[in-house]
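Consortium newsletter contribution from the modelling node. Members have asked for a concrete example of what our holo predictions look like. Here is one, prepared for the guanosine-5'-monophosphate complex that several groups have been discussing at recent meetings.
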Amino acid sequence: MQEVTIHNAVFESYISENEINNAVSAVANKINEQYKEQDVVFIAVLNGSFMFCADLLKKINLKCEVSFVKMKSYEGTETTGKINELIGLSEDLRGKAVILVEDIVDTGNTLERLSEILISKGVKSAQIATLLYKPEAYKKKIPIDYVGIEIPNEFVLGYGLDYDGLGRNLSKIYKLKHH
Ligand code: 5GP
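And here is the predicted structure:
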């Protein structure tokens, strides 16, 4: 499919399945190399990272655990403003080497909050693996350890990423078409 239309927005083909597969393999190889003698806990951030996580983990040959979390944001009081809470984390992460698995890093807000939470849980180390990264939009200082593909500031869809709930099932990545 060269184009898809969702809720009246037109998206054009952007990153092929083959390119995605190569990027996932490159990330997996780096992680396999770096964590040779170590146990790892992969923590995937739902919903967007489900497809990347599944493909990535099939290429990981380490002794590892996999867990899924979700960021829930809600309005707090006037003084606390917007609050991000992490749901789904049941494991004891104390002393463990953790790799966060993200679909895309944009401003980095989500990532920053997640790494604060992980550090407060007493992890031994926390690294970040993301399929897509928008360097022009990134506003934080936290290093992003494993990046599949860097992209410009475009809105993308597919391979786990949605537009208003739809499009996560698409096997390649599309970008919003500008007229
Ligand atoms: P950040 O907190 O880094 O600004 O944004 C991270 C989250 O925003 C991602 O996990 C994703 O859900 C959403 N997001 C950021 N950019 C895009 C995009 O281009 N397409 C889609 N579908 N979601 C995005």
